[in-house]
Amino acid sequence: MSGAGARASGLTRQRRRSAWLFLLPMLVVLAAVAGWPLARTVYYSFTDATLATLDAYARVGLDNYLWLMRDPVWWRAVWNTVLFTVVSVSLETALGLVVALTLNAHLPGRGLLRAAVLIPWAIPTVVSAQMWGWMFHDLYGVVNAALLGLGVIAQPQAWTADPHLALPVVIAVDVWKSTPFMALLILAALQMLPQDIYEAARVDGVHPVKVFFRITLPLIRPALMVAVLFRTLDALRVFDLMYVLTGNSRSTMSMSVYARQYLIDFQDVGYGSAAATLLVLILALATVAAITLGRVRFEAGR
Amino acid sequence: MAAVTLRGVRKSFGRFEVIHGVDLDIRDGEFVAFVGPSGCGKSTLLRLIAGLEDLSDGDLSIDGALVNDLPPAKRGIAMVFQSYALYPHMTAYDNMAFGLTLSRTDKRTIEERVRAAARLLQIENLLERKPRDLSGGQRQRVAIGRAIVREPKVFLFDEPLSNLDAALRVQTRMEIAKLKDDLRATMIYVTHDQVEAMTLADRIVVLNAGRVEQVGRPLDLYHRPRNRFVAGFIGSPAMNFLEVVVAAAEGGAVAVGLPGEATLQIPVESASPPVGTRLTLGVRPEHVGVAEDGMPATVLAVERLGGETHCHVTLEDGQRMLVRMEGDIPVGAGDRLCLNLHGETAHLFDDAGQRL
Predict the structure, then answer these.
(1) Are A202 and B85 within 8 A, CB to CB?
(2) A-chain residues within 8 Å CB-CB of B98?
(3) Inter-chain contact B72–A205, Cβ cutoff 8 Å?
(4) What is the CATH number of the domain that holds A213?
(5) Is B212 an 8 Å CB contact of chain A?
(6) Is A37 domain-assigned?
(7) What is the tally of structural domains in chain A?
């Protein structure tokens, strides 16, 4: 600001001053609620602080990170999180597209349908996770009752306890919850598309499937990439769904659940902070990768 | 060969009928313009021919084959949209080639056809650009090129010039006229601009409220409008209409009383109405003469266009008229003029709007 500011007119300087003035409250709040905790977390990750001795700790350098690298449970959590993210975001994107395309068609009662589709997204995750937890209950759950009644399964399944079933169940609940969000973002993009090119395609004799892949999909790609990025970041820091459905179970533990377990249950603030810091790093990398890859694909056109 | 025939064509949206039974014969290689005010159904009629809308009733044949139930792509038509409707993510080349790549035309043929169309439209250097990097006129050419490469039997234009600025519109109009001669295909052209219709079309179809008012060659519509609607719609500035009363009638001519003593003899084609009948007299602004002696009028306002002068005048009984004079005439508001009308260039309409 200094160099340019010296040459800038009085009016420009005044505008800049008021801009900073307006920004200041937001910057202060951000620094207090996001910047400071983040800085403390990063700082603690290089110490042996515990929840009981937050003021008396020693600096241990990279020890926490080295331990973390050698912990198979951490790597299991990373794998769980990545698997959860890739599978749930892919399913949500595919289903969201289907729902959005359906809602975009001229159906009777479309407005009501749109509102109804949003309900899973509107329910707080803890509430919907608890609801699904009851539905998947091994003894009293409606899922077991229904599947037994239909003869699909021979004996009740421990949906959230069975290591092979728990992660798929968590993914299924997330898909149920987040598909509406995806559908809504895609629907907004679909409604921005010009209608005349679809008439041109009809005159050109383009098959509807080709219209989708050669016209609709390329045109909504920018919006789709944003939606996928949003969901990916959300999924990478998933916590409440796993915590409510399966607790600290290792078969579904995400990075966030792992960090919380060390921070709170084991009171190991230093180690937990290291896990949390790594999570932030992974999130940042994923964001950069998604933005770069997304943009490259978009500019490539077809 | 590619004649287009409409028989009793009707179209309803829900309970509203917007096309009330249209019969039309468009000959092979003919350039026909549909004109009419907004909401007259001209675009709907074109979309019915294109197959973008389904007929509610009647028959439509193209090139002798009934196409009522054929999808647009199978009708042998190509359409140029008002908004161009280019695929925004494809280059100009791909926009033109897209329809062909799907019909499994081989690559060499596609390339040849696209290059040929581009040469015709002088857009060869723009083929690698995307629509957002093209000007309005260039986009319009690409859209026309996309229609040409389909080698259709019938070209359909939906107000193709209305999104262009005035200068470009005149230029593109000339080019469409040239295209008409080069392609020798049947063309149907929708416009609300009667100048485009007059200059381009072999025949004009004047539509009003979902009905055909008149079909004819441009100058036939100008000189012999069938009714008051066509008379008012064709010609610019629009025709003057005066309320008059029949003063005398003899075989083949009617004399009507004009404001201020004078009468005017007008030849008519139908039976003469009885003396005293109220009629509407139509005179084009360019057919009103100014002389030493005649129907007195007072100038209300003057519009000077340089090459011509438009005078808004009031007659003795308060009715208003527009007089168009060649050149820059020195008249001003409040001046008194004497107007001369001529029976051969005047028209009489009965109270139903039909020309006598």
Answers:
(1) no
(2) 204, 206, 214
(3) yes
(4) 1.10.3720.10
(5) no
(6) no
(7) 1
Dist. CA A148–CA B212, nearest whole Å? 69
Please say whether the dihedral angle defined by the alpha carbons of residues B176, B181, B184 and B190, taken in this order, is positive or negative. positive
Q: Which amino acid type is present at position B264?
A: L
B327 torsion bin: left (phi>0), alpha (psi -120 to 50), beta (else): left
Give mean pLDDT in consecutive 10-residue pieces for chain B, a chain of 356 residues.
89 92 94 93 94 94 93 92 93 92 83 92 92 92 92 92 86 88 90 91 95 95 94 92 90 86 86 88 94 90 93 93 92 91 92 90
Q: Is A82 within a domain?
A: yes
d(CA B31, CA A258): 76
The reply to whether omega before B218 is within 30° of 0 (cis) is: no
* Interface confidence: ipTM more than 0.85: no
CB contact under 8 A, A206 and B146: no
Sort out which chain B residues have CB atoms less than 8 A from A204's CB and list them.
73, 98-99, 102, 146, 150
B150 Cβ under 8 Å from any chain A Cβ: yes
What CA–CA distance (Å, rounded) separates B80 from B82? 7
| pTM, entire model | 0.80
Find the helix or strand (DSSP H, E) in which B49 lies: helix B42-50
pLDDT digit string (tens) for A258-292?
Answer: 999 999 899 999 999 999 999 999 999 988 888 88
Is B237 in CB contact (< 8 Å) with chain A? no
Q: Are B164 and B140 in contact (CB under 8 A)?
A: yes
Domains of chain B (ranges plus CATH)? 4-233 (3.40.50.300), 240-349 (2.40.50.140)
Which residues form the domain of A120? 72-299
Partner B contacted by A108 (CB < 8 A): no
pLDDT in tens, B283-329: 999 999 998 888 999 999 999 999 999 999 999 889 999 999 999 98
Is the CB of B71 less than 8 angstroms away from the CB of A205?
yes
Q: Please tell me the distance from the alpha carbon of residue B88 to that of residue A198, in angstroms, as a whole number.
A: 12
